[in-house]
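On clarity, I found the account of how folds are encoded harder to follow than it need be. Since the whole study asks how a given chain folds, the encoding of that fold should be made plain. For the editor and my fellow referees, an illustration may be useful. An entry of this sort, consisting of the sequence and the corresponding backbone structure tokens, reads as follows:

:::
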Amino acid sequence: MGKITLQQAALWCGGKIDPKYKDVTFLGAGNDSRKIEKGQLFIALQGVRDGHDFIPSALENGAAAVLCTHADGDYPAIVVEDTRLALGTIARGERERIGMKVVGVTGSVGKSTTKEMIAAVLEGTYRVAKTPANHNNDIGMPMAILAMPSDTEVAVLEMGMNHFREIAYLSSIGRPDIAVIINIGTMHIEHLGSVEGILQAKLEILEGVPANGVMVLNGDDSLLWNQRKQLDRKITYFGSQNCDCDVVGRDVLQNQSKLAFMVDSSRQTFPVELSLEGEHYVHDALAAIAVGMEMQVPVEQIQKNLLAFRNMEGRQEIYEKNGFTIIEDCYNAGPESMNAALNVLGNRPGRHLAVLGDMLELGVCSDAEHYKIGRVAAQKADVLLAYGPSSQRMLYGAITGGMSQSNARAFTDKNVLVQVLLQLAKPGDTLLFKGSHGMHMEQILEQFLKKEA
């Protein structure tokens, strides 16, 4: 990891420093004084609490310097008008200094998994760095860039949003050489108004792509396919339904925990196998394959790396515990990912219990989408336990979809839900836990497993 001097960072962001501290260096950045690592730059952000209040704590815990709007003391600091914007500008400068290739990843569903798969495919051919966990916003992504080693050859950056112009800002920092859009779904429709609005927001990633850059798009998504004559960049399409795509997945076969398919491209045809359950992963893998092929990764390396791929914690982890098969998919949820998770549940042997939390940020579409998921649950699950303010809508959907009223319950209290689940669940059952991040379905799972032990 390359050290950055305060003088260099100040030049990038237009900040002011005390000349006596110009040669002070930092490695990476953090905005939590309790978790700051020795030698990092502490970012004093204005949030629910003013980050400036925690500068003494950050320095005491090892911060090398501070990015702030005012320095109330004698310590290494870069003083700027807006610490959030300055962080982004410093990260942009570091991205250019390292000179790495950048793959930017966005979409409504599957961004994190696709980001991880792309990084996995490229490893072994390049020195790869990536945004960790959910560091995909205007704070996390810049901090991830500042933590990347100086010898990074390719950075894979996840870019999230829930409002217009957020992707444009992230793209201006990362300046992706290859921009991947997985799909256009209904996540965040509350803030963006329509799927066309979501499309517009996702396409903002194009603003940071250079003229010789590449767009990698899902050709099975009609909204993205219709952009093929509109965009002024090279486009590589991937898909499993649209045979006109550049990279096509066909003959998809799910066999227990193995997902296999054939890849057809203008260059060659080859088989791929992954240790994952669910055909929804085909698009994630095809996006990674398309990026790998664009970056000249040997087919044998692509095959090897995808077979060895394991998903991130909290993203559809399937394991045995206390006699139950647990599908833990608690990180986030939208209509598309709920459907995919229920399909995985329905394909498992034995009795199926779906423990589903609300899908947030759906706005005026919320009632209809929760009702639809209830209908899907009626076909894929034997029991539905729904949690949250929209749980009744999910319940009505399940009952009208054919599920017995005795097997469909709605809850607004987690503890009550856990008690009912303890009564209903039997060894040998498969249990799916899924909901939006804000519903904290992992807490319900944790309580259930603890009491079952």
Q: What stands out?
A: The chain has 16 helices and 21 strands. The first helix runs from residue 6 to 13. The mean pLDDT is 94. The two ends are 44 Å apart (CA to CA).
